[in-house]
Amino acid sequence: MSITSYNGSALIAMVGKDCFAIASDRRLGVNFQTIACDFQRIFKIHDTLYIGLSGLATDVQTMHQRLQFRHKLYQLREERNMRPETFASLVSAILYEKRFGPYFCEPIIAGLNEDGTPFICTTDLIGAKQLSKDFVVSGTASESLYGACESMYKPDLGPDELFEVISQALLSSVDRDCISGWGGIVHVVTPGQVVTKTLKGRMD
Amino acid sequence: MECIFGLVGDGFALVVADTSQVQSIVVQKTNEDKIMILDSHKLLGVTGESGDRVQFSEYIQKNILLYQYKNGIALSTSAAANFTRGELATALRKNPYQVNMMIAGWDKDVGPSLYYLDYISTLHKLEKGGMGYGAYFLLSLMDRYFEKNMSLEKALELVDKCIEEVRSRLVVSPPNFVIKIVDKDGAREHSWRRTVEDKQGPPPTAAPIASPMAEDISVQS
């Protein structure tokens, strides 16, 4: 099996009206054996910036630790939080540093700019940034996820509708991928608050 | 075929490991202790490449004790698990250690905890987990019979069920297992589950065989 499908993962981020939602599955597996159904793939960088990391679980954890370290240092120096575009460039630079021995993870960055407009982007495992206006997906179920998102997505959805759309897209896609799924978690972020909900899906 | 598993119960955590040391097709010994006591309230059960297993677990143990001596306070289980993960992760892309681990500990504020740590340094906190070929059988047994906050008696019943399953269904199953426990009273060995005894020492002396060529036979004992 390929190294990026060793642990299994599925991630989506979607843009709504002055809000964004980021969702992931919860399975941690080793090839076809499931180890846990509460693995964390989405990490909060600050109140309005989240990063989701798909791919090899050990690199997910290492990348999260490195990025958290860099952001905390940035906060100490600049006395403010990083903007989403800046953070995306940081992620891209950190990944490209390991160009000839990469981290096997593909991040999704989702945040709100200072004016409240949502920002999402994804990069590949060596840091090629891909900005998007509507949605980004990542993980072993990415092909299913692209299809589900393309058909279900509508622009300018409110937080509640966005939650429904992203949850349905995630659950229907991971049901077609045997190494991702086993539940889901969704964060819907608006300028004032974050609503986190766990999804009950097929546990198989 | 090494096997290691663990579970968390009411105020305690158990780690169970097989105790066979195998080289190719030869079983060198059947009482190899693979669960290291890191400090007063932590256990580190390790399986994998024998040299890496011993070297890496001793390295972790010494560093955990060093922290305690330097800073006057012991590491929490979570900190020890993350430290171990960091060491494995740093070595991963240089000269990787081929060891799988279960780390168990007891902290005053958190209670018992169990961590799964892969050979590619994937760390995850679990209530029950296992590694090796044996895990293919006992993970589903644990899914069926494990409850949160089990008493020690019920947990040992589950452990015995798991060991029976591994013994009966795994093709080259290890004969002996050791069970270690960590709770508020500390980390210690709990018991063994043996089917084979390791014979120690030279064989007992026997009388020399009488030979027609010998003129005088004297038996010394």
TrEMBL record, chain A:
GO terms for cellular component: cytoplasm; nucleus; proteasome core complex, beta-subunit complex. It is found in: Cytoplasm; Nucleus. SUPFAM superfamilies: N-terminal nucleophile aminohydrolases (Ntn hydrolases). GO terms for biological process: proteasome-mediated ubiquitin-dependent protein catabolic process. This is Proteasome subunit beta. Gene3D superfamilies: Glutamine Phosphoribosylpyrophosphate, subunit 1, domain 1 (3.60.20.10). Non-catalytic component of the proteasome, a multicatalytic proteinase complex which is characterized by its ability to cleave peptides with Arg, Phe, Tyr, Leu, and Glu adjacent to the leaving group at neutral or slightly basic pH. The proteasome has an ATP-dependent proteolytic activity. Component of the proteasome, a multicatalytic proteinase complex which is characterized by its ability to cleave peptides with Arg, Phe, Tyr, Leu, and Glu adjacent to the leaving group at neutral or slightly basic pH. The proteasome has an ATP-dependent proteolytic activity.
UniProtKB/TrEMBL annotation, chain B:
CDD domains: proteasome_beta_type_2. One of its GO terms (cellular component) is nucleus. This is Proteasome subunit beta. Residues 190-200 have a biased composition (Basic and acidic residues). Its main location: cytoplasm. Component of the proteasome, a multicatalytic proteinase complex which is characterized by its ability to cleave peptides with Arg, Phe, Tyr, Leu, and Glu adjacent to the leaving group at neutral or slightly basic pH. The proteasome has an ATP-dependent proteolytic activity. InterPro entries: Ntn_hydrolases_N (IPR029055), Proteasome_beta2 (IPR035206), Proteasome_sua/b (IPR001353), Proteasome_suB-type (IPR023333). Component of the proteasome complex. GO terms for biological process: proteasomal protein catabolic process. Keywords: Cytoplasm, Nucleus, Proteasome. PROSITE patterns: PROTEASOME_BETA_2 (PS51476). Residues 190-221 are annotated as: Disordered. It comes from the Eukaryota. Belongs to the peptidase T1B family. It is found in: Cytoplasm; Nucleus.
